């Protein structure tokens, strides 16, 4: 632009100079008709008229000297209504023109008007106009000075910026308040940003704590998983539905589903990752439990099918044995009734003896059958407690000593004192009575039947019942404990058997989570081995309490000690520690929480049952789940009982009483009733 000043700018045409009403002559000077405007002047005129930005020229008083069309459009006023008026004419009524004029004149004289600024004007129409203003002073030929102001409408830009700010704020609110854990991480393995749900998921209080962690070392349960995730994100740019194991602050392992993408810089280089997690720990645990429940139900179904098959076969066999004695009984009864006058006294006594023998055989068969049935269906309530094996065996020996002397067979109870097993004393008495009674049938005069504590093939102690009898043929040993085989043979003096004695013994041993096996050689003798979960010297009573909450362990310990004040309380913070303590100390009972990390109550029962050393320990599960199906599954898996949270001291006492533990604080009311 030439230095001719403001006057030169408006010397392009008469119409423009005509609009400069009230301006100094030098400012209103126009070229003579003979002057030809230069190309540069024409260009400047075109710029003024066609510029997108509004232009306004004001003098030292703030009066508008000139405006371009863009300015008129910007303020919504026509040029004649603007030129010659104070620039405040564009403002909404209420603006103080005099104050504006004085401020303007002061700044104009001092040359302190800002050269660039942004301002929002409330126009006379009520419209709010946001503009960027650029100002510069322009000097006329006569030395007069004017202010040229250029106005660029930034309302749209402001709206865009506001929309961006609002959008960013909305995104931040969504990020911060999302119920789904969200994160941003660096490629080096640091958390850059995380929302509250992410902090809660991992168990941290602040982002600062999370930022200090190393993702691979502190958050991933498996470092290999982190490597695979990073590799997939770099290769594909995203991952979806990826199942991962993460570690919370307290060490608990959780399962999550991750959806994430790689963050790229302008060059397409991966600089970090962002994603969203879904905690599926509870869902996975439930799926796992459902599978376990289904497995337990399937096993139960199989067991029931096998039991029904056994019963069908058994009853088909028993149908003959149950009918046969009645033929003899009814036959002799008929003879006694119809031919009584022809029978001698000796014959009548003989017939009555046959009837009595048949009735006794029938009674023995029915009693054995009922015993087996009650054991099979669980209708016999077992009173489990620490039992001195020698004392139980001695009771059986004493009851059969007269028969042994009658047959000339020696009975020897060589068990040491203080050998303790966990069991029901009356049922174990039945085991020894059956085994010794059987041995008496097949041991000749001068033989010996002994009960001793021996070492099994694996070195564990076993109770052995040995006789020097005729032995059992190898082909018959597999039939001894099968009720459906109803294996029986006559004794050396013609004694009959029901074929149910050994199956009943086998069933009793199973109820004790114990095993029975046999070794025999024809002509040499037979030995039955009784292997209990533990055979140990008598020791103090101990109770194992397993829970991942320390306060709960303390509370339940006090409940137990109320009823068993002299018991040793073993404490485990998780299922793994509980398993180790059970194997080492063999407690009288295990009270375990259902929900624990790694090994929960369900898995603990399974692992204890799989180990011969712990399979006999009763396990009571404490759970907050009130689902009947889950309780049934726990009972099917081998739980001795289930305690529903919240647990009370009296409920613990009832449980200990039901397990036949020596409670010393008085009999719980419910159990007594």
Explain what this protein looks like in three dimensions:
By secondary structure, the chain is an alpha+beta fold. It folds into 5 domains: 6-155, PAS domain (Beta-Lactamase), CATH 3.30.450; 178-279, Beta-Lactamase, CATH 3.30.450.20; 290-380, Signal transduction histidine kinase, dimerisation/phosphotransfer (DHp) domain (Helix Hairpins); 381-538, Histidine kinase-like ATPase, C-terminal domain (Heat Shock Protein 90, 2-Layer Sandwich); 540-672, Response regulator (Rossmann fold, 3-Layer(aba) Sandwich). Helix content is 45%, strand content 22%. It contains 23 helices and 23 strands. The protein has a 5-stranded antiparallel beta sheet with strand order 2-1-5-4-3. A 5-stranded antiparallel beta sheet has the order 7-6-10-9-8, sandwiched between helices. A hairpin with a 3-residue loop joins strand 16 and strand 17 (525-531). The longest helix is centred in the middle third of the chain and has 58 residues, at 281-338. The N and C termini lie far apart (113 Å). Residues 1-35 and 669-673 have low confidence and may be disordered.
Give the strand line-up of the largest sheet. Answer: 2-1-5-4-3
At the first level of CATH, the class of the largest domain is Alpha Beta
Terminal Cα separation, in Å? 113 Å
CATH architecture label of the largest domain: 2-Layer Sandwich
The name of the CATH topology of the largest domain is Heat Shock Protein 90
Separate helix tally: 23
């Amino acid at each position: 632009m030439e230095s001719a000043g403001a006057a030169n700018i408006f010397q392009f045409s008469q119409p423009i100079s005509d609009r400069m009403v009230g301006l100094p002559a030098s400012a209103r000077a126009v070229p003579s008709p003979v002057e030809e405007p230069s190309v540069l002047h024409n260009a400047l005129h075109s710029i003024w008229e066609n510029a997108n930005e509004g232009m306004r020229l004001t003098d030292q008083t703030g009066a508008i000297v000139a405006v371009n069309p863009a300015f008129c459009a910007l303020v919504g006023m026509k040029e004649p209504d603007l030129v010659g008026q104070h620039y405040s004419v564009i403002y909404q009524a209420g603006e103080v023109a005099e104050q504006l004029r004085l401020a303007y004149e002061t700044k104009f004289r001092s040359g302190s008007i800002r050269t660039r600024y942004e301002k929002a004007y409330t126009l006379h129409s009520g419209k709010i106009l946001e503009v960027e203003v650029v100002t510069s002073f322009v000097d006329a030929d006569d030395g007069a000075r004017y202010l040229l102001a250029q106005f660029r409408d930034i309302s749209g830009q402001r709206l865009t910026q506001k929309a961006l700010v609002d959008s960013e704020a909305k995104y931040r609110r969504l990020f911060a308040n999302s119920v789904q854990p969200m994160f941003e991480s660096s490629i080096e393995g640091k958390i850059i940003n995380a929302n509250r749900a992410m902090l809660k998921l991992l168990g941290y209080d602040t982002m600062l704590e999370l930022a200090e962690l190393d993702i691979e070392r502190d958050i991933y349960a498996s470092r290999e998983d982190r490597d695979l995730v990073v590799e997939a994100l770099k290769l594909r740019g995203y991952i979806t539905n990826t199942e991962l194991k993460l570690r919370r602050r307290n060490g608990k392992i959780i399962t999550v589903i991750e959806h994430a993408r790689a963050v790229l810089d302008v060059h397409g280089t991966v600089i970090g990752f962002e994603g969203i997690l879904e905690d599926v720990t509870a869902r996975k645990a439930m799926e796992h439990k459902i599978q376990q429940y289904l497995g337990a139900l399937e096993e139960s179904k199989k067991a029931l099918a096998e039991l029904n098959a056994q019963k069908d076969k058994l009853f088909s066999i028993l149908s003959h044995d149950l009918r046969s004695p009645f033929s003899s009984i009814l036959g002799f009864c008929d003879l006694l009734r119809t031919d009584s006058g022809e029978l001698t006294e000796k014959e009548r006594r003989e017939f009555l003896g046959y009837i009595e023998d048949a009735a006794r055989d029938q009674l023995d068969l029915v009693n054995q059958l009922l015993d087996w049935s009650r054991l099979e269906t669980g209708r016999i309530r077992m009173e489990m407690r620490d039992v001195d094996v020698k004392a139980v065996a001695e009771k059986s020996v004493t009851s059969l000593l007269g028969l042994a002397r009658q047959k000339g067979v020696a009975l020897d109870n060589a068990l040491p004192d203080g050998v303790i097993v966990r069991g029901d004393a009356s049922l174990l008495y039945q085991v020894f009575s059956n085994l010794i009674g059987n041995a008496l049938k097949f041991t000749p005069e001068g033989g010996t039947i002994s009960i001793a504590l021996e070492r099994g093939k694996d070195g564990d102690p076993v109770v052995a019942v040995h006789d020097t009898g005729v032995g059992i043929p190898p082909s018959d040993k597999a039939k001894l404990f099968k009720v459906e085989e109803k294996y029986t043979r006559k004794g050396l003096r013609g004694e009959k058997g029901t074929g149910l004695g050994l199956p009943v013994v086998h069933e009793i041993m199973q109820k004790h989570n114990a095993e029975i096996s046999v070794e025999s050689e024809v002509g040499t003798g037979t030995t039955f081995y009784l292997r209990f979960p533990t055979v140990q010297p008598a020791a103090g009573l101990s109770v194992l309490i397993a829970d991942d909450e320390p306060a709960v362990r303390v509370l339940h310990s006090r409940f137990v000690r109320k009823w068993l004040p002299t018991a040793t309380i073993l404490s485990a913070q998780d299922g793994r520690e509980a398993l180790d303590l059970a194997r080492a100390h063999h407690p009288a009972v295990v009270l375990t929480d259902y929900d624990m990390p790694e090994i929960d109550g369900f898995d603990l029962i399974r692992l204890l049952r799989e180990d011969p050393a712990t399979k006999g320990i009763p396990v009571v599960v404490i759970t907050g789940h009130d689902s009947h199906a889950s309780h049934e599954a726990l009972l099917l898996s081998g739980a001795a009982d289930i305690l529903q949270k919240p647990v009370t001291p009296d409920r613990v006492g009832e449980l200990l009483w039901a397990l036949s533990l020596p409670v010393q604080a008085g009999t719980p009311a419910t159990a007594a009733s």
